[in-house]
Write a structure and sequence with these properties.
Distance between the termini: 54 Å
Number of strands: 0
Largest sheet: none
Order of helices and strands: HHHHHHHHHHHHHH
């Protein structure tokens, strides 16, 4: 005798908290403002221009003025630190003159790039790296214990083989160091221009994470995991659907990164 079974089609019951969230209808204008603020602050002029057209809003800043920050960011990401420093000084010499830690971080990164180049081959010439460290970094190192420690750790890259570095040294050659310095430079330029040093979405995500932490500490009834409702949370490949707005990519990924860090996307409809 044959038996048949049918799969359950019962829709899972939502947690009460999730139902309350569904009842909240955020303002489309507010959402568009936060997205545009992010694109301008983080330096995505093309996406900002496209989003402004799609959302029928006016950018809060001349999109063309973002390009200078984009060029500096791209130069740092490419390891062309000298070009980045020159472009920063063109915007205003006070940006680095008044921020010794940032200036040192850029020079240290420039030294890292020189060391990366000279150690890429067995018989590489380390003279350029030594000369740069002596003339640019050594005079600054005694002014701050952290500077001296950073310089000593960076010079250790010349001693140990690149394929057998301690984690603290390997981190200096990781592309994430370029990104970190580029973010600090972007913030410094924004402050110099009288703008916010970071996009509002970053504060919002940090506030959300803090609120969730406090609620759980107070034993509030919450779901095991609170999602932001972003495509990447349910799609491991990170691909967006056909209806995704111009902000796909940078805002979505950065927002998830902020959440994962415990602190760079919603669709515009």
């Amino acid at each position: 005798m044959m038996t048949s079974s049918t799969a359950s089609t019962t829709t899972p019951t939502k947690h009460p908290f999730e139902r309350r969230v569904d009842d909240v209808k955020p303002s489309k204008t507010d959402i568009n403002f936060v997205i545009m603020d992010y694109l301008i602050n983080e330096g995505y002029p093309s996406a900002a221009k496209k989003f402004a057209l799609e959302a029928n809003i006016q950018p809060t800043e001349d999109v063309a003025s973002i390009q200078e920050r984009v060029e500096i960011r791209n130069a740092i990401h490419a390891g062309d630190i000298q070009s980045a420093i020159e472009k920063i000084n063109e915007l205003g010499s006070q940006i680095l003159d008044g921020n010794a830690p940032l200036h040192f971080a850029l020079l240290r990164l420039q030294l890292v790039e020189l060391i990366r180049t000279c150690t890429s081959s067995p018989n590489g010439d380390i003279t350029p790296a030594l000369t740069f460290a002596t003339t640019q970094l050594a005079p600054r190192a005694p002014t701050n214990p952290a500077f001296l420690e950073d310089l000593e750790r960076t010079m250790a890259l010349l001693i140990f083989p690149p394929d057998n570095l301690a984690p603290s040294l390997a981190a200096l050659l990781d592309p994430n160091l370029r990104k970190s310095v580029a973010n600090s430079v972007n913030e410094a330029i924004l402050v110099n221009q009288g703008a916010r040093r970071e996009a509002r979405i970053r504060n919002i995500v940090r506030l959300r994470t803090w609120a969730e932490q406090k609620a759980r500490e107070s034993k509030k009834d919450l779901p095991v995991k609170l999602y932001l409702g972003l495509d990447l949370e349910g799609e491991e490949n990170g691909s967006a659907g056909a209806g995704t707005s111009a902000t796909s990519g940078p805002l979505q990924q950065d927002t998830l990164m902020l959440e994962n860090d415990g602190n760079d996307e919603n669709e515009s409809t």
